[in-house]
Protein: Type I restriction modification DNA specificity domain-containing protein
Organism: Ziziphus jujuba witches'-broom phytoplasma
Amino acid sequence: MPDKQFLKCPPLRFREFEKEWEEQSLNKFLKERKEKSTVLNQYKIASVSAKKGLILQEERFLKKIASKNDIGYKIVGSNNLVVCPQNLDRGTICINLDLGKVLVSPSYKVYLINYSFISVLFLFFAIRSRKNNEIFKLIIKKGTSSGRVVTDMQKFLKLKFYIPSLSEQNKIASFLILLDERIKIQSEIIKDIELRQKYYLNQLMERQLRFPEFEKEWEEQSYLKEIAFIIFGTNPKNKFYSCDTNNFKKINQIKFECLKSGQIRGLDEFNLKIRYYSTEDIKISYDKLLQEEDLILNKQGKGTAGRIGFFRHSIFKYSTIINSCGCIIRANKTIINSRYLLYFMNSEYIGFKKLHDMAVGTTGQVQIPVEKIKNLIIKYPSLQQQQKITAFLSLLDEKQNLEKNLLQNYQLQKQYYLNNLLI
């Protein structure tokens, strides 16, 4: 059999297929659909999300979209290809697999797919592959003064892809669908654990659930400032290098990491795709360096103020500070367990929403006032009971983290197969 390096075929193939793939332009199997709505509210309005594909706007914005006039919006049917030319470099291209007829903005492009040349599901996976997303970036052009980019749609239709036989297309698509189904099941498992976590957390804090060895009512409650040290973040003048996670080792002699408050996602989750390091000595008091089991509160930003993270040296290996948009909550461990405090502040007694609603300001840079943070009321039992509650809830955390790691592995597997089953 010839060396596959010299064949027009992908690195991985199902063994029953040996024929080379054929190069085809998109315009061979796509035809623009120009049908438009003629009456008001003819169908629901949808838009393209780079992550989720085609979604109804009422779901995307969590409210019904009442367009003043959607006459003239483009009609999208089942299995039509939809492209948002303004953001194609970000992946705003998808196929309408399950919404039925919907409307999209007149600025979108809608295409009918010729099933005699290409499988809808094969095309669905092909356009979402990383390689093809890079190809789409080559046909964008800068917009007007707004700086937005748009796609040259004539060049888009002339783009060439390698396509196998319909039988091989269907085989590849069926295999990738199985992976998608496994990812969906795994996502549902995680959602179920999250619901159980929330239920047990609130039931334990409200004393609706109790451990049998602890019957005494909780008598203790204090202001946060009485049971924890509250230390506000800082913005040192030192130079910090930003780098993605894969490249930080290239920075020599790292001495400090700066955690930005916007990187706090809640509990044990941080957005660390980009990290900020300094190679300089920072003149800063020891108490402003994050310590093991510190709580980190993001106190600023619309949609983000109120998120609380939990600091671990296993994640942050260098001396770490939080910027001035955040603050450190350092529990007095003779009174309160740090992890218990984290759980209590994330329960319905306080929680993200109540903290966020405390923020004041007229722009996106709303901020939770210092005194409101200090005067949060914390209820707590004995240290022994705190530890029991913490141990129980931590088991659920560990279970969730295991399932999330499994989901990530499935997603990486899918990306691997997308890159290697397609050209």
The first helix runs from residue 57 to 60.
